[in-house]
């Protein structure tokens, strides 16, 4: 789905969301009343220092002046790969955006990621993966790293990697694989008006505790993460 | 007859290079002697369930040591990545150990956490699990900080602090870094592969150090303390940073927003670290890279940006 169609389907009562060179900012009217803040990245734009700080400013301003949920729509490249971005401290800019989203989520502004296109690596961490609930739309193509690049690092052919990917969801790109690890909470139905699915989600929104490891265990995509984290947490508590 | 004191079996912290040391040596020498207790140590053999798919060797601790010890007599939780195993990269088990430690710290609410970063980022053989582990760790760092826990990062290892490791580092309350402690998202080779040598020549080591290395990060205010490459120097820095104010909230985020906006405004058109250092008022920017640690610290205290309370 294209961003315009998605926004129209999410907010039939109207929205003022603008896409300026891939940076998405605005808000939409919710059917149940009130408005949702909308931020995001479109058109497979890489996320660099300039766009990250704009998005963070918008979220921060909304924390003090607004209310209602925050929707993060994502069709990005990975982080912008350049000398300038790294020179200026891209890690801080990306983390700052993630921190603003997490802070908002923990203070009455539930965050919902809507992954409708691509995303990867640092851009994924700073946006969609920094939300309380991440929803995927059919056709979304998240990838921590694409198979040709992975082939270069692992010294295995793409054919071998594709074969291995059939037995495990843990490394190969794709929405279904990420959903199995617990990163994606739900995949919406593109044939059903998105407003219905958004309102249903908002009415039964989970609390802000991070249960993605438990979800990954239930779905069979991450067999050990939940248990290991719980054991370490328990051992730490014995030290107090 | 004079008595010669017995030589210790291992080198003391004052002469042990952080860069050269293993995660276990760093942990042992950083903490008060004999105080470290490991959680899920190598004897438990909790290895990665994914590396065998690639016929790769496993490590019994999955490349990270986590546990509890004391620093200057006070209890701390600690995690140390082993940069010599899979480049210190985050896999499912590796990441879950750090997530669990941070959640424990959050629940306790008063015991600080030290993270000894040494990582190239996500472990590609388990990329989805590793990426998600980093997202969980970022959230767990923030939750711990919201509960009043100080989370201090120490960076000076072989693998630097790259990829998602750089994002986690930027979520910490404060950071100490040595010259060798490179912090970035995209590594030099990744930028070169994607954008060409004109954008970034990864074989130009001087360029790598001054763009991503500890000195530049300290001058920018991306790290709070610069230290010499010894375990003792990191220990002293950790003690000092733990003594500073912590906390997390809207006020800090607002200050960080202003701090990063100012950085873009002041240095956003600079083509190189040397231009940034000159713009800061350093008269011999080209000499910064060769300054010994003590002289650099004096310079950084005079000209470097401060990120205290704005991260």
TrEMBL record, chain A:
It comes from the Bacteria. GO terms for biological process: carbohydrate metabolic process. It holds the Pfam family MdcE. InterPro entries: ClpP/crotonase-like_dom_sf, Malonate_gamma. This is Malonate decarboxylase gamma subunit.
UniProtKB/TrEMBL annotation, chain B:
GO terms for cellular component: acetyl-CoA carboxylase complex. One of its GO terms (biological process) is malonyl-CoA biosynthetic process. Keywords: Transferase. GO terms for molecular function: acetyl-CoA carboxylase activity; carboxy-lyase activity; transferase activity. Pfam families: Carboxyl_trans. Residues 1-250 form the CoA carboxyltransferase N-terminal domain. InterPro entries: AcCoA_carboxyl_beta (IPR034733), Acetyl_CoA_COase_Trfase_b_su (IPR000438), ClpP/crotonase-like_dom_sf (IPR029045), COA_CT_N (IPR011762), Malonate_beta (IPR017556). The keyword Nucleus does not apply. PANTHER family: ACETYL-COENZYME A CARBOXYLASE CARBOXYL TRANSFERASE SUBUNIT BETA, CHLOROPLASTIC, MALONATE DECARBOXYLASE BETA SUBUNIT. This is Malonate decarboxylase beta subunit. It comes from Chelatococcus asaccharovorans.
């Amino acid at each position: 789905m294209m961003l315009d169609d998605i926004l129209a389907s999410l907010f039939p009562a109207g929205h003022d969301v603008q896409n300026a060179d891939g940076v998405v900012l605005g808000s939409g009217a919710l059917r149940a009343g009130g408005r949702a803040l909308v931020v995001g990245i479109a058109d497979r734009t890489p996320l660099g220092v300039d766009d990250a700080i704009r998005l963070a400013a918008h979220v921060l301003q909304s924390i003090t002046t607004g209310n209602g949920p925050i929707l993060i729509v994502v069709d990005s490249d990975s982080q912008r790969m350049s000398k300038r971005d790294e020179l200026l401290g891209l890690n801080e800019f990306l983390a700052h955006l993630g921190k603003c989203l997490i802070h908002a989520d923990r203070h009455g502004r539930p965050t919902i990621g809507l992954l409708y296109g691509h995303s990867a690596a640092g851009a994924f961490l700073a946006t969609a993966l920094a939300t309380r609930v991440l929803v995927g739309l059919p056709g979304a193509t998240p990838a921590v790293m694409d198979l040709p690049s992975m082939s270069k690092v692992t010294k295995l052919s793409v054919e071998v990697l594709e074969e291995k990917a059939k037995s495990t969801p843990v490394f190969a790109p794709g929405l279904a694989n990420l959903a199995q690890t617990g990163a994606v909470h739900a995949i919406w139905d593109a044939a059903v008006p998105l407003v219905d699915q958004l309102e249903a989600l908002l009415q039964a929104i989970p609390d802000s505790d991070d249960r993605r490891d438990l979800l990954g265990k239930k779905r069979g995509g991450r067999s050990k993460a939940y248990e290991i984290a719980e054991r370490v947490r328990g051992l730490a508590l014995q030290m107090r | 007859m004079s008595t010669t004191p017995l030589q210790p079996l291992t080198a003391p912290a004052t002469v042990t290079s952080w860069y050269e040391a293993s995660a276990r040596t760093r942990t042992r020498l950083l903490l008060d002697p004999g105080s470290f207790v490991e959680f899920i140590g190598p004897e438990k053999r909790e290895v990665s369930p994914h590396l065998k798919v690639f016929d790769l060797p496993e490590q019994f601790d999955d490349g990270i040591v986590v546990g509890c010890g004391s620093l200057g007599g006070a209890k701390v939780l600690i995690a140390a990545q082993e940069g010599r195993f899979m480049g210190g990269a985050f896999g499912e088990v590796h990441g879950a150990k750090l997530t669990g430690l941070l959640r424990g710290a959050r629940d306790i609410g008063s015991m600080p956490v030290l993270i000894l970063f040494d990582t190239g980022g996500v472990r590609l053989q388990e990329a989805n699990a590793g990426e998600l582990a980093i997202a969980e760790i970022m959230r767990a760092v923030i939750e711990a900080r919201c509960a009043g826990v100080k989370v201090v990062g120490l960076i000076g290892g072989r693998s630097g602090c790259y990829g998602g490791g750089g994002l986690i580092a930027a979520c910490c309350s404060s950071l100490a870094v040595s010259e060798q402690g490179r912090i970035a998202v995209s590594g030099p080779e990744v930028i070169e592969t994607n954008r060409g040598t004109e954008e970034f020549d990864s074989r130009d080591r001087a360029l790598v150090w001054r763009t991503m290395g500890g000195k530049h990060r300290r001058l920018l205010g991306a790290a709070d303390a610069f230290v010499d490459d010894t375990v003792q120097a990191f220990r002293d820095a950790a003690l000092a940073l733990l003594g500073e104010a912590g906390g997390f909230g809207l006020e800090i985020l607002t200050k960080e927003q202003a701090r990063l906006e100012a950085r873009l405004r002041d240095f956003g058109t600079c083509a190189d670290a040397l231009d940034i250092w000159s713009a800061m008022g350093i008269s011999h920017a080209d000499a910064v890279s060769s300054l010994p640690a003590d002289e650099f610290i004096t310079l950084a205290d005079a000209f470097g940006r401060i990120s205290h309370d704005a991260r």
